[in-house]
Design goal:
This protein is an alpha/beta fold and about 300 residues long. It is about 40% helix and about 15% strand.
Length: about 300
């Protein structure tokens, strides 16, 4: 199945700006994009680990063309945003920063779409103020910590040798790890572009500290699961079942606990893996267009 090539990182970055945002540890500078009409209904897309907002680059134009005001940003430690060394990264601060971006851009209520690491940020935002979130869409991520199956490389980076191993990560190793979680082929050039966002400004080095989100998911499990399952707004899951981390084994619980939600399983063939928006952008965009509607 053919897919459009992702834009270069430079082209993606040229469509956004770096702006200040306040978190609980102080001010940081984040890369933020605004696409679509300013008066359109807002939708915020939150990316995953270890990449950036560029993951959404094939989805954003479709949503913007439907009249939505689309906000994407690189979370702290990712992509073109600040990557402070020795920082105590936390999902709670990432949520602070997203809220401050919304404040600075005068975004009130918004739809929320999240993937991977971003699902934890979105669950925290939902726990804080569910009334602000008009609808939620979830792509493969660790919604339930007991079902999350990190790769061996993630376990190692999360362990005591993480800081040493982070320095040794190469583009070749990154591509190899990505291919373990992808269900459909992604061109080498696109994987190279994704690697550029990971490695930019020493971006490999914060990985062990960012991976502490695995522990945060356990710490905040009750609150985050309640926020997810207790939300009564429109809810969509766009899921790649071939994902070894958060794939088909998560779907029975989603269907059991949230029978009101719509589940779009990208079973193919070939089945989609961990990065639906990169592997199957047309199918993901179509699902989100139908879910979000037309402005």
């Amino acid at each position: 199945m053919s897919r459009t090539a992702m834009p270069s990182g430079a082209r993606w970055a040229a469509g956004g700006d770096r702006m200040p945002a306040q978190g609980r540890t102080g001010a940081h500078t984040l890369f933020v994009r605004q696409d679509g009409p300013a008066a359109g209904p807002p939708v915020t897309l939150v990316h995953g680990f270890p990449t950036s907002s560029h993951d959404w680059s094939l989805i954003v134009p479709r949503l913007a063309a439907r009249g939505h005001r689309v906000t994407t940003l690189d979370l702290l430690g990712f992509g073109y945003s600040d990557k402070p060394r020795g920082h105590e990264y936390s999902v709670l601060e990432q949520a602070d920063l997203v809220e401050d971006v919304w404040r600075r851009l005068a975004i009130g209520d918004t739809a929320l779409v999240a993937h991977d690491y971003g699902v934890s940020v979105a669950q925290e935002l939902l726990a804080r103020d569910p009334g602000r979130i008009t609808r939620t869409a979830w792509l493969n991520g660790g919604l339930y910590p007991d079902l999350h199956r990190p790769l061996t490389v993630q376990r190692l980076l999360h362990g005591p040798l993480g800081p040493v191993l982070a320095r040794a990560v190469t583009e070749r190793g990154f591509r190899s790890s990505m291919r373990r979680v992808l269900g459909r082929a992604v061109p080498d050039q696109d994987l190279h572009t994704m690697w550029e966002s990971v490695s930019r400004d020493g971006g490999r080095l914060p990985a062990p500290r960012l991976l502490r989100y695995i522990d945060e998911r356990r710490t905040h499990r009750a609150r985050w699961v309640q926020a997810l399952e207790g939300y009564r707004g429109p809810t969509l899951f766009v899921w790649g079942p071939a994902d070894p981390i958060s794939g088909a084994h998560v779907l029975p619980r989603i269907r059991e606990r949230m029978p009101h939600a719509t589940v779009t399983e990208l079973a193919g063939p070939p089945a989609v893996g961990h990065y639906p928006q990169v592997e199957a952008p047309d199918e993901v965009a179509e699902a989100l267009e139908g879910f979000l509607g037309t402005a």
